[in-house]
Structure formats: C-alpha cells, structure tokens
Amino acid sequence: MYRYYNNCANAYRALGDFDNALLYYHKAADIVKNLHPSQKVSSYYYLANTYASIGRTEEADLYYKKLISGRSEYLSPGHPLLSYDFLAYGDFLTKTGTSEEAIKYLESALQIRIKYLGEKHWLTSEAYRFLGRCHMQMNDWE
C-alpha cells in the first residue's frame, strides 16, 4: 500500500494538485511510521519538498529535520547518503533566506562528497554550486 499511496501522491504532485499529493504522502508515511527508519525517511523527503513547493515553510522545515534525524538513526555520521539530505535542506534554507544555517548543511554535504567521491566528481561540483548560490544570495563574493 505504501507504494500505491506514494505513486498517487507523485502523480498528484506532477499535476500540480498539492493538496491531494500531501494527503497521499501522509497516508504513505502513516503506513511506514512504525517500521525501520530507512523505510520512513523517503516520506519525509517528499513531504518536505511538497510543503516547500507551496510555501508552507514551517512544515517543510519540520520534515527536512525529520528526514535528517531519521536517516541519522541508521547511518553513521558523514555517510554519503546524508549529503543528499544536507543539500536538500541547505537549498531550502537558502531559498527561505536562512543562509547562515544553510551554509552549515551545504558545507557538510560538500565535505562528505569530497571525502567519498573526490574533488572532481560531478556530485561534488553540485555541492559547490549549491554553496556558491547561497554565498551569492548573501552577497558574499569572497
């Protein structure tokens, strides 16, 4: 049932029907809430992104934090998968004008990617791009 609800939510989101997307994302999250953290964090990601898309920043922030803390329950600090979550949350914080906090997450993502992928990997360059955009928004050109 989880996949059914999640697929319905994805379809509604693609159609721009965010209310129904959220309804189905929440149903999917309810199904996996008592399972292993690895199975519930994807729901938090989709909820955070959808709330961010419709400007409900408090809810988005809550689910980004749940995503990071949920993944941290079963991954070691600095695990490569955390870099995706740090980038997503850092980008959200940049877009909401919380650049100082965003930099912390974006730099963490960058350090993880440098460690595991090296300086010249395209995913590392993506982290540099997000970090650069954040500094640019702050008019920090150094």
**What class, by secondary structure content?**
mainly alpha
Count of helix runs: 7
Residue runs with pLDDT of under 50 for 5 or more positions: none
| Number of domain units | 2
CATH topology of the largest domain: Serine Threonine Protein Phosphatase 5, Tetratricopeptide repeat
Using the alpha-carbon principal axes, give the shape.
globular
CATH superfamily of the largest domain: Tetratricopeptide repeat domain
* Rg calc: 16 Å
Main sheet record:
none
Please give the number of β-strands: 0
Question: Mean of residue pLDDT?
Answer: 93
Indicate the proportion of strand residues.
under 5%
- Helix coverage percent of residues? over 70%
**CATH classification class of the largest domain:** Mainly Alpha
**Secondary-structure element pattern, one letter each:** HHHHHHH
First and last CA, distance: 50 Å
Query: Which architecture name of the largest domain does CATH use?
Result: Alpha Horseshoe
